[in-house]
Amino acid sequence: MNERELAERIKEISVAEFFEKNRHLLGYENPTRALLTVVKEACENSLDAAEEAGILPELRVKLEQVGEDRFKVIVEDNGPGVPASKLPQAFAKFLVGSKFYRYRQSRGIQGLGISGALLYSQLTTNQPARIVSSLGRRDPIHEFELMIDVTKNEPVVLSHRRRPNPDGWHGVRVELVVEGRYVDKVFQSVPEYLRQTAIVNPFASLRFQGPNGHSVEYPRSIKELPPVPKEIKPHPHGVEVGLLGRMLKRTGARTLLGFLISEFCRMGRTSALEACRTAKLNPNQPPQKLSAEEISRLHRALQQLKLKAPPLDCLSPLGERMIEEGLRRLFKAEKYVAVSRSPSVYRGNPFQVECGIAYGGEIGEFQLLRFANRVPLLYHQGDCALTLAVKEVDWKRYGVPHDGFPQAPMVIMLHFVSVWVPFTTEGKQAIACYPEIVRETKLALQEAGRRLFEYISRKERLRRARARIGLFERYIPELAESLEKLTGKPKEEIIERLKGMLDEEG
Amino acid sequence: MNERELAERIKEISVAEFFEKNRHLLGYENPTRALLTVVKEACENSLDAAEEAGILPELRVKLEQVGEDRFKVIVEDNGPGVPASKLPQAFAKFLVGSKFYRYRQSRGIQGLGISGALLYSQLTTNQPARIVSSLGRRDPIHEFELMIDVTKNEPVVLSHRRRPNPDGWHGVRVELVVEGRYVDKVFQSVPEYLRQTAIVNPFASLRFQGPNGHSVEYPRSIKELPPVPKEIKPHPHGVEVGLLGRMLKRTGARTLLGFLISEFCRMGRTSALEACRTAKLNPNQPPQKLSAEEISRLHRALQQLKLKAPPLDCLSPLGERMIEEGLRRLFKAEKYVAVSRSPSVYRGNPFQVECGIAYGGEIGEFQLLRFANRVPLLYHQGDCALTLAVKEVDWKRYGVPHDGFPQAPMVIMLHFVSVWVPFTTEGKQAIACYPEIVRETKLALQEAGRRLFEYISRKERLRRARARIGLFERYIPELAESLEKLTGKPKEEIIERLKGMLDEEG
User: Fold this and answer.
1) Which residue of B has its CA nearest to A128?
2) A413 or B225: whose pLDDT is higher?
3) Are B364 and B442 part of one and the same domain?
């Protein structure tokens, strides 16, 4: 091969082509999961948009069977809508989104989800997506037919119609025809996904119409949105040296001091001056001009600084009451416990773990329910930090036999909330095993385990006491007779007295 | 929020930024694995390049500790080199590569690997990569210092020096300074990765110099390259309707018939005409103008066509002899078996599974070694189609107790080769569970299991026979004495005769 040939082989690949060939990375490795992934991506976008705009979410999800292995998926919300000028990009171009750059809790983050659904649809059925949206009041209703130009990763607008909007409707309606397989009554299914979604989003109203006439409605059980999680700035301890370099280059601040104070959280004037002093840098110099060596010094100085943990109003946990309520709605158990840990930090990202246990009653085998930022995780359980933590807890200490997982009639629910969820794949089904995350999850589980143990051991004590009493009761008449002989007291009186003593004890 | 604000929030994300924030997807979730990933990406590129150019690969890998948690990684090869005009892009831009569009077996595919290593290096140490390359003879030696402009996903060339090349050196030398942790004597380590790489690439010569003075050399044991795998065209059965549509739009063919014959494998004139007839399409019409409906009809017609499986010279398996030899070099066992299945197809991609078992001898606990296209897979064992297949085999049938995995002193080696390996993440450590792949792997394991069973049961029969003979031998003198009494024959003769009979039987 000569130089020209060698050079010609080296080509650019569009990110859309990459995901077309690697569609299993996005959750499209088989028709059953593909159908679920399409629904999931649309619902996550809808819930995020409504919540962020301060609107109580109302979602309608409909699956129509249009061929042996084909479904029309319709997801409609009452959110703020997407501006028509940006709609084609937001839906039909990979790596476009509104959430990637923000340090704030949200369901979607990566700018891949809904474009992945459109790509899968056109790959398997070659039909355009129909997206309808309006911002309400003065905006008409926009109807788009979109496809993705895969080679360029650019949207192709096949049609854009405007319709009058007399009622001021706002929201988004997504219609996709996809290859898929519909299942219900199993864990990894659309109905189960929606059921679990309703549980952790009790302020949302969900309606589902399945392909087989099956339909179900989850009305909201809370009439108020949770406090909107705040956007925060990065914490100095979580910033790697390369990223610090990029932040310095592109900042608008005129002095290093100004940069440090304005671009990070938890950095006051005193801390910023201290960092400059430690790094032997002039706080008044322009931040854009630091050399690689100076950036490294600044990075080390920032790591050594004693700082408060990042602020936590960027997180929106469920809270213990809501976890317990959720479990009560899902399972008839004997005992419920819920633990909401206080927030912690991994690589500068605030996060929080919540845990609930439902025990006994009608529960059969052990089951684990995982959630991240109010989204149920139904796949890749084996590969998840939350699962690892469950396996690493020594459940015997809490009166529960185990063999990897607990071997008991119990359900564990774990909820991970963070400004940035480190998913193991773009399909967002498992959390990467960062040591800090596993540790915090174990602490949550251990606390829940202790509370469960109090119940289990009280119950066990009671059971033993009852057994003892039962045994004793059987011998009371005989005992009374002997005592009558010894004491001369009538045995009826003695029996009464002995029974009274037992009752007191029980 | 008003329309402008809503619109402004929607932004493009560069693919480099995406992977910076999601670096665990590329294999950089902790310092130990990160160091391994850097070495792995460089070695895969080197082996692919040399092999493809028909050069027996010679690799040198060196790790120098340059700080508490910092290493300089140097990987040098004797491959064809990379043309200087394309080098910055090939190394410092994501989604650029030479292998993505080809249907051919190779180690790397995605155009992410080495750029990921550069990104990790600059993120954790803020230092440029040093890449040295030459095409040999008339080309000078080019020395580049590169970084990635993460916001734009473009290379930044800090320096480019040309040096004389009197000896006509050709190859690539990569030098990166990265944050990492060095371990050895464990499975997930650089030395183990290189040891396993040497085993499945016996035509390569590898030299490794570790940070602690430890150095090791794997000279090549075979002086010839395996036949270069051929590039093939896609098979009609594996093409999805959306992709078919794209192929039709961008083909240079002037008729539909010409398109079908030239762009697919296993499509002769007869099959192509039959497909047109079934789809009710004129074979002489221009292929670029088909409507969505016509494309769907064509797609269905292609699926129904009876066609030969794709040609298989695109695959380069190890073969049974090399698998057995590899296992012999790694383990002192009692028995070795090797099975190389004939190729099969998933989603139009030819693939092949090979399996080896080493049993007994000095082997302790069960161990599984996984490989894909001659690359060892050291992480994510739990999430891999190969692992799933091992667990699904009923090992008891082959005389091996099991509990998920076999519970016996044995090592299973599995090698997956294909023109396209469906890895579960960009870090390329596990194969997605496509049903066809799991099934073929199970068949390979079952065949190996049967061969192993022959050995195990023969050994068991022998053991029993020996035990029986042992018992008998003890009673021979007594028996001989009684027989002497009965027959009058001297007992010494009888003993001799009985022993002779036993020897014949053993």
Assistant:
1) B292
2) A413
3) yes
pLDDT in tens, A374-429: 999 999 888 899 999 999 999 999 999 998 899 999 999 999 999 889 998 888 99
pLDDT tier at B332, thresholds 50, 70, 90: very high
The residues near B456 (Cβ < 8 Å, ≥ 6 apart) are B359, B398, B399, B400
**pLDDT score recorded for residue A506:** 47
Measured between alpha carbons, how far is residue B25 from residues A291, A403, B51 in Å?
Answer: 30, 30, 28
For the whole prediction, is pTM greater than 0.90? no
Looking at the structure, tell me whether residues A389 and A494 fall in a common domain.
no
Interface test mutation site (partner A, options B4, B8, B13, max chain A beta carbons within 10 A): B13
**Same domain, residue pair B429 and B406:** yes
> How many angstroms separate the CA atoms of B441 and B438, rounded?
5
Cβ–Cβ gap B10/A90 under 8 Å: yes
Chain A, nearest residue to B420 by Cα: A21
Partner residues linked to A216 by β-bridges: A208
Closest CA to A171 of A281, A254, A278, A49: A49
Which B residues in the span 170-209 are in contact with A, Cβ-Cβ below 8 Å?
none
> Quick check: is B130 in a domain?
yes
Compute φ and ψ for B262, nearest 5 degrees.
Answer: -90, -25
Asked whether residue A243 is assigned to any structural domain, the reply reads yes
Whether A124 sits inside 8 A of B83 (CB atoms) is no
Residue A291 sits at the chain B interface (C-beta within 8 Å): no
Count how many domains chain B has.
Answer: 4
Query: Does residue B90 contact residue B97 with C-beta atoms inside 8 Å?
Result: yes
Measured between beta carbons, the chain B residues lying within 8 angstroms of A241 are 123-126
Q: Residue B285: name the closest of B262, B253, B326, B237 by CA.
A: B253
Q: What is the residue range of A412's domain?
A: 320-452
Candidates A12, A86, A292; nearest CB to B126: A292
Contact between B6 and A82 using a beta-carbon 8 Å cutoff: yes
A and B: number of Cβ contacts within 8 A: 188
Q: Residue B506: pLDDT band by 50, 70, 90 thresholds?
A: very low
In this prediction, residue B1 carries a pLDDT of: 63
Q: Same structural domain for residues B198 and B241?
A: no
Q: Which residue has the tokens 């792949």?
A: B437
Tell whether the model's pLDDT for residue B328 goes beyond 80. yes
Round the average pLDDT of chain A to a whole number and report it. Answer: 90
A159 plus A49 within the same structural domain: yes
* Chain A contact set for B111 (CB, 8 A): 13, 18
The CATH number assigned to the domain holding B262 equals 1.10.8.50
A116 shares contact with chain B (CB less than 8 Å): no
Residue B380 at interface with chain A, using a CB cutoff of 8 Å: yes
pLDDT confidence of residue B505:
54
Q: Binning pLDDT at 50, 70 and 90, where does residue B40 land?
A: very high
Q: Which residue has the tokens 């809503």?
A: B6
Cα–Cα distance measured from residue B29 to residue B243, given in angstroms and rounded to the nearest whole number: 34
Cα–Cα distance, A276 to A265 (Å, whole number): 17
Chain B touched by A43 (CB under 8 Å): no
**Long-range Cβ contact pairs of A22-26 (< 8 A, separation 24 or more):** A22/B110, A22/B422, A22/B423, A23/A116, A23/A119, A23/A120, A23/A123, A24/A427, A24/B422, A24/B424, A24/B432, A25/A425, A25/A426, A25/A427, A25/B424, A25/B425, A25/B426, A26/A112, A26/A113, A26/A116, A26/A120, A26/A426, A26/A427
> pLDDT tens digits for B137-178?
889 999 999 999 999 999 999 999 999 999 999 999 999 999
Say whether residue A228 is in contact with chain B using an 8 A CB cutoff: no
Co-location of B426 and B461 in the same domain:
no
Best residue in B22, B100, B103, B176 for a mutation probing chain A (most A CBs within 10 Å): B22
Q: How far apart are CA A51 and CA A325, in angstroms?
A: 21
